[in-house]
UniProtKB/TrEMBL annotation:
Name by which UniProt lists this protein: FGD2 protein
Higher taxonomy: Eukaryota, Metazoa, Chordata, Craniata, Vertebrata
Spans through the membrane: none
InterPro entries: FGD1-4_PH2, FYVE_RhoGEF_PH, PH-like_dom_sf, PH_domain, Znf_FYVE, Znf_FYVE-rel, Znf_FYVE_PHD, Znf_RING/FYVE/PHD
Species for this entry: Nycticryphes semicollaris
Record's keyword terms, sorted: Cytoplasm, Cytoskeleton, Guanine-nucleotide releasing factor, Metal-binding, Phosphoprotein, Repeat, Zinc, Zinc-finger
Recorded superkingdom: Eukaryota
């Protein structure tokens, strides 16, 4: 009952969050789902307006709740609710709006909660992936770097997830691939190198073989172009130990 009371109180207010005045963008409670909100601008917030976790370019990206317009992280917006203004189609909403719109109580620490990709084990994600294998992400000098288990999941095909090992329980980094350019680098000292580049952001990878390098370049190029499905023959046996 305490949890329900807290949720109802939050749903009734929708007031200032983290010192940001949102009077111009917040909807009245009775309007949630009935009228499209005015989205809070991304550049006005540096942290999730629900859980207060800071945003960054790689591991915690910004999303908008389609009901209230708040800027929230993926975990806090991992809910779907029907919105009347969008012909009752399911839309991404934050937990607060989900509770209000559906009348369902969400226990934040409940077992069996739907997990985001970053929280899923490497084996679970690799089992349904477009491509996964061991790679090395080199540092800016190109001399050292981090070796890990890299995965492009089928259910999130525009993002590259990096695990420390195939048996790891949580990804430590993610790289959104959309819009990047994939560049082949000349082979030197038997090193199979390629890059992801966008503006000033550059990632350099080292593959174990030339064949594996070419497979990764093709998969990343498709994701960077927004192509979310690979040919059926390429979907099979897509993981390399």
């Amino acid at each position: 009952q305490d949890a329900i009371d807290r949720k109802e109180k939050r749903s009734e207010t929708f007031k200032t969050v983290h010192g940001l005045e949102t009077d111009t963008s917040a909807l009245k409670t009775e309007e949630l789902g009935r009228r499209a909100p005015q989205w809070v601008r991304d550049n006005l917030v540096t942290m999730c307006m629900r859980c207060k976790e800071p945003f960054n370019a790689i591991t915690r990206r910004r999303h908008h709740c389609r009901a209230c317009g708040y800027v929230v992280c993926a975990r806090c917006s991992d809910y779907r609710a029907e919105l009347q203004y969008d012909e009752n189609r399911l839309n991404r909403v934050c937990q607060e709006c989900y509770v209000f719109l559906t009348g369902r109580v969400v226990f934040e620490d409940r077992e069996g909660r739907h997990k985001g990709i970053l929280e899923k084990g490497a084996a679970e994600v690799s089992g349904r992936s477009l491509l996964c294998s061991s790679l090395q992400l080199l540092d800016k000098n190109g001399k050292g770097g981090t070796r890990g288990w890299f995965v492009i999941p089928q259910d999130d095909p525009l993002v590259l997830y990096i695990y420390a090992a195939p048996q790891d329980v949580r990804a430590h980094t993610s790289i959104p691939l959309l819009g990047y350019q994939v560049k082949d680098l000349p082979q030197g000292d038997s090193r199979h190198l390629f890059q992801l580049a966008q503006s000033r952001q550059v990632y350099t990878f080292l593959a174990d073989t030339e064949e594996l390098k070419q497979r990764w370049m093709k998969a990343m190029a498709r994701s960077a172009a927004g192509i979310t499905r690979m040919e059926e023959e390429e979907d099979e046996d897509s993981c390399d130990e």
